[in-house]
Amino acid sequence: MTKNIHTVVIAKDLADLIPVFFRNRQKEVETLRSALAAGEFEQLRQLGHRMKGVGNSYGFAAISEIGKRVEDGARAADRAGINACLGEYANYLSKVQVVYE
Predict the structure, then answer these.
(1) Residue 1 has what pLDDT?
(2) Among the listed residues 68, 73, 25, 71, the one whose alpha carbon sits nearest the alpha carbon of residue 45
(3) How many Å apart are CA 84 and CA 64, to the nearest integer?
(4) Rounded-to-integer distance, Cα 52 and Cα 48, Å
(5) How far does the chain reach from its first CA to its final CA, in angstroms?
(6) Which of 13, 19, 48, 100 is such that its CA lies 20 to 30 A from the CA of 35?
(7) Cβ distance 29 to 93 under 8 Å?
(8) Contacts (Cβ under 8 Å, ≥6 apart) of 27
(9) In 21-40, which positions are buried (b, 16+ CB within 10 angstroms) versus exposed (e)?
């Protein structure tokens, strides 16, 4: 297996939803970047909170963890911390591999 690939095991009954889920996550990265550039910390907080929920709902704990850090960073107006989270999020999305069972 390639190094730095994140493998996530998902129930087969979610297989049809995963492509849309990932398209929405890619759009979310851009929305987060725009909000950060505009200093929209309340929007960042809300997006981070939503990431926490959708990540765990679909079995992607890493998305929930990053979302928590975005939410916490937004509360603290921590631009650098949020920016680091966004880089980690984009990297994760580019390397996650889904296995259905």
Answers:
(1) 41
(2) 71
(3) 15
(4) 6
(5) 18
(6) 19
(7) yes
(8) none
(9) beeebeebbeebbebbeeeb
CA angle 31, 34, 35 (to 5 degrees): 85
Tokens linked to 63: 């998305």
Provide the whole-model pTM.
0.93
As beta bridge partners, residue 96 has 6
Query: Could you tell me the two tokens for 93?
Result: 């999305």
Helix, strand or coil, per DSSP, at residue 38: coil
Helix-then-strand count for the chain, H and E: 4, 2
d(CA 45, CA 10): 27
Q: Residue 4 in contact with residue 92, Cβ under 8 Å?
A: no
29 dihedral zone (left: phi>0; alpha: psi -120 to 50; beta):
alpha
* pLDDT tens digits for range 14-64: 999 999 999 999 999 999 999 999 999 999 999 999 999 999 999 999 999
Question: What's the pLDDT at 2?
Answer: 44
